[in-house]
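Title: Prediction job returns without error message
Component: structure pipeline
Severity: low
Priority: P3
Assignee: unassigned

Description:
Job completed but the reporter wants confirmation the result is attached to the right record. Sequence as submitted:
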Amino acid sequence: MSGYGHEGDERTFAALPPTQGGAFTRTWWGRAWLKALEDTALDGRQLKAGRRQARAGAVGAVSVRPGRITAVVKDRDGTAYRSDVLVRELSEEEWERLLDLAVDSAGHIAALLDREMPPHLVEDAAAAGLDLLPGIGDLDPECGCEAWDHCPHTSALCYQVARLLDEDPFVLLLMRGRGERTLLNQLQARSASRAARGGRGTDDTREAEDAEGVGGMPGVSAEEAYAAEFLLPPLPDPPVVPDTPGRSPSLDTETEPAPGIDPAALEFLASDASDRAHRILLEALGGGTSGALMAGGVGAGGTSGAGGGSWAAAAPLTVAQDAVRLASDSPAPWLASRLTSGSGRTRAEMDLATRAWRFGGSAALAVLEEEWTPDTEALMWAGARLSEAWEDDERPVLRRAGARWTVVGAETQLRLGEDGRWWPYLKSGARWSPAGPPDRDPATALATALAAGPTGAGG
C-alpha cells in the first residue's frame, strides 16, 4: 500500500446497531460500494457470511484512514478479532488528475465545496482512468483469525463501510488517500489559482475553455446541467414576511451602563434598525414598497419611495442627513432635541428638514438645503414648458436664480433637483418650505404650489 495520506486524516465511527430486513444500504453511494464489492469478490461464501455478521451488529467502531479501515468483529460465541482491510490509495499523480477533473467541472466543484459528493464523479473519474470504487485487488485483508484471504470478519467490515458511506460519502475518498478537510483545502486553492490565471493554464486547453463560457469564465454544458438535476434539492420556499418588525430588546437592567452609553438611545436605534430591515425584506421578497417606505421612512443609505430609486441603490447618508431621517418619524421630544442639536440645525431648520424628508427623503433634503446650477439646455426646456402651459394673460411671471424659479408677486417657488425633478415650494414667514412631492414636469409642480396657496406650507 502506498503512503500518501495526510496527518490528521483519520476518522472513527461508532458501532452501528443491527439491521434486520430490508435493504442493507439506503443511498446511491452505499449501494455503489456494495455492488463493486460483490462484483469483485473472489469468495461469495465468505462475503455472505460477512453480510450476516454485519447485519447482526457484530462490527464494532470503525476507524478509517488513508489506505486502511479497521474494526473489532465478534463471532457468535463472543470471540473478538481485530480486522483490517488495506485499501489501494491513489497515487499523487492520480490525485492531481482527480483534482483537475473536479475543478474543470463547475457542477463537481460546486457540489464538493458544498460538502456533497456527486455520483457522476465516479463515472467521470472512471472515464479518466481513475477507479474510486474498489476493484479486484484493491481490498487486501488482514485479520486476527489468521485467515489467508477474506474471512467473514473482514467481509463484515467491508459491508459496514457501505453503511458509513450512507452517512458520509467522503469516507470513500479518505480511504483512497485524502480526508475531507485536506481535499476541500486543495480544491479551494486550485480553484483560486485557476481563477487568478483566468482559466486553465495551458494553451492546449484554453481554446476549449473559451468555448465553454463568456469572457474566459468556464460554463456548464446543458448536458451536465440536465444530468445533475436529480442531485439538486428543490429551492426552498421564500420565508414569510412578518406582519410587523421585530421588537428591540429592553436595555433597562439593574446593571449600570458604561460611561457615555445611553440605553434609551440604543433601544431607539435598535428599533429603527428593525423597522428598516422589515422594509427591505418586504421589497426583497416581492412585496413591493411598503406604505411606511412610501411615506418617507427609509434606512441609512436610502431614500424614500417619493424620493425615487430603491433603498439599495442610494448613496450612504451623512450623519446630518440620517439625523433628519430619524427625526422624521416623530420620536420622543428628548430624542428629537438630541437629533436636532447633533445635526447642527436649529429647531426651525429641523422642522423644515423633516417636512422635506417626508416628501422625498435625501433627494428632497438636498433641494431644501443645497444650491446648484443646472445646464443651459435644461433651463431652456423648462422655460418653454412653463410658457406653453398657460395662456398669455394667465402665465405667472417667474424670476430665476440658479435652480430656483420664484413667482413674482406670489409666495410660490419651483426648485429643480439634480435628478431632474421639480419641487413645489411656498413661503412660510421668512423661510421657504416644501409644499408637495416632485414632478418631472415643471408646469405640473408649479400648479401644485399655486393650488396649495399660502396655507400649503403649514400642512
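Comment from assignee: result matches the submitted record. The CA atoms of residues 102 and 109 lie 5 Å apart.
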